[in-house]
Automatic annotation (TrEMBL):
InterPro entries: 3'-5'_exonuclease_dom, 3-5_Exonuclease_domain, RNaseH-like_sf, RNaseH_sf. Keywords: Hydrolase, Nuclease. It comes from Staphylotrichum longicolle. This is 3'-5' exonuclease domain-containing protein. Residues 284-363 are annotated as: Disordered. GO terms for biological process: nucleobase-containing compound metabolic process.
Amino acid sequence: MPDEAFQDAKKAAEGTPDSFWKYTMYRGPAEDGTLDAKVKVHYCTSSRTTERVIKQYFMNEKVLGLDLEWVSNALKSWGPRKNVSLIQLASPSRIGLFHIAAFPAKDTLVAPSLKKLLEDPEITKVGVWIKGDCTRLQSFLDIKTRGQFELSHLYKLVKYSKTGEHNLVNKKLVALSTQVKETLGLPLFKGSDVRTSDWTKPLNMNQIIYSSSDAYATVQAFAVLNHQRENLESVPPLPHHAELNLPIETPEIVVPEATEEQEPDPEAAVEDSAAIQDQAVPEAKTALEDTLVREDGPAPEDEPVSDAQPDAGNMAPKLEKLPGEQITPAPQSKRDGKPSSKTNSEPPSNPGPRATAELNSQP
């Protein structure tokens, strides 16, 4: 993240749109190896484009942010489109929004490469309440996700290893918004209007920013926390993949298996969730030029979640035509919570003005 963008956000009035952490503030790896390329968002509404985007941009990653969105209070009988409406993946340079609910009626809901990626234990998928998301993927899409990494485990390991309070290292979950504020230095917007919106319809710009930021926040927070772990005086091992149900190891103690979190309601499971205040979705003011690629062509006119209409001049994305693509211009609810060694050609984005971290694969 450019320091100027960070400082501007810090100076913005608390609670205003410009004060929140957003993926659009970051710069990822460019083709020349510098960190000055805007983070691209690939919005896919078919299995065909999902397959191509996964193969082209995500299959060679070793660490990815993972998040899901679904219709609030959806019943199991409502089927996969309402219970796993959107799958988000994020690398330092790109975000993939795979809108399962918007796939054509006769389309297969799970692209082969997406299933292969999620079930590959060598590709670490970072999230908050990651077990809950992966249980949902298995229940509704028959995807047995491996390489699950609970960000809360690393957060507590680093935080309390610094102070020597190893007895506080446990497997209780911590809200993503709390982790982002402490780790990346800015608050993450978590408004209820977007969180509980209809994720089965074509995504509007508020939903795109919200869902993209959630997934991208996890991969950036992992980078910073892992960098901090590696620089501790006594370096503890990286926590194991969550599906292995192994203890968290610290320099002095091993957190016993008995402290493994249960699978409660996601809202209740997240620490500090009661302190998170729902707010109206702010008017989106972030310019998205050259960041959004609608892989399946134009979409219907956006219908903002909030009553406030986004500034069309500022929000309308200018779509980039990538090599070999024909682009037609057009734009969970656990919400407070939702890792590849990177290829040499794609170093991680600068996670913030105070820390630049390298993503490391799971040992």
